[in-house]
Amino acid sequence: MNWRTWTISCDGTHHVDELGAPVYTERFDEVLKFHEPGLAPVRRHGHAWHVRADGSAAYDRRFKRTFGFYEGVAAVADSDGWRHIKADGQDAYHQLYAWCGNFQGGRCPVRESDGSYYHIDINGRPAYPARWRYAGDFRDGCAVVQADHGCSTHIDRHGVLLHDRWFDDLDVFHKGFARARDDGGWIHIDIKGCAVYARRFAAVEPFYNGQARVERYDGALEIIDESGIVIIELRPPQERPR
Q1: How confident is the model over 172-226, as pLDDT tens digits?
Q2: How far apart are CA 167 and CA 116, in angstroms?
Q3: pLDDT value at residue 67
Q4: To which H or E segment does residue 84 belong?
Q5: Rounded to 5 degrees, what angle do the CA atoms 185, 104, 192 make?
Q6: Does 2.40.10.480 match the CATH number of domain 163-242?
Q7: Could you tell me which residues come within 8 angstroms of residue 119 by beta carbon, excluding any fewer than 6 positions away?
């Protein structure tokens, strides 16, 4: 059975193969995708756990919510808090959190009961001493964090700032560029936190094969290259621009 190619049924109660046929007889209230090591989160009658490829339970424990496995552990929520578990259902570490994300690159964002965010390592230990108003997933060795003043920047795996630039809103880097919003609007920035062009937009998408779709403030849509040069206009200015 190749669970890597399976998808979720239209009613969300089970998994189906490439032909749309059910891969097991069990039915649940909710299922999520399979992840390594071949386990999928399910929920039924208020209880949540993980199942194997044949629909059988991977362990005896039950939780309020379960999520997919990433880097060998899965985030779960119960009445006492959030944690990560291993494939056998045992806790990956002893700490409890108000919320847990998913591990990416050996780091995972968590939130404490006081509302502060930071990242932990696979053993549940803080990766650095700082605390943030918000912290996102790591990607390619960096993550977005938001300080108490409301602006965001990038940090590395050890909590060190990648650049000394702060933005009203920010995304992780994708193929060398990140979406960022300053006082003028949305732009793309490089790894040093510098804008790669002078223009500002109402919205920008990540670069895809060297080009990105953007929306101007007059409602027009464009495709630009990595230097901000217009390749093609997809939609002219609108009568009621944003």
Answers
A1: 999 899 999 999 999 999 999 999 999 999 999 999 999 999 999 999 999 999 9
A2: 19
A3: 98
A4: strand 81-85
A5: 40
A6: yes
A7: 107, 108, 109, 110, 126, 127, 128, 135, 138, 143, 157, 159
Contact 57, 42 (CB under 8 A): no
* pLDDT value at residue 241: 56
C-beta of residue 234 within 8 angstroms of C-beta of residue 223: yes
Taking 3-state DSSP, the helix, strand and coil percentages for the chain, each rounded to the nearest 5, stand at 0, 45, 55
Measured CA to CA, the distance from residue 72 to residue 240 in angstroms comes to 50
3 state DSSP class of 4:
helix
State how far the Cα of 78 lies from the Cα of 72, in Å rounded to an integer: 20
Residue 121: Cβ-neighbour burial (10 angstroms; 0-12, 13-18, 19+): middle
Q: Which two tokens stand for residue 99?
A: 């919320």
Q: What is the mean pLDDT of residues 127-155?
A: 97
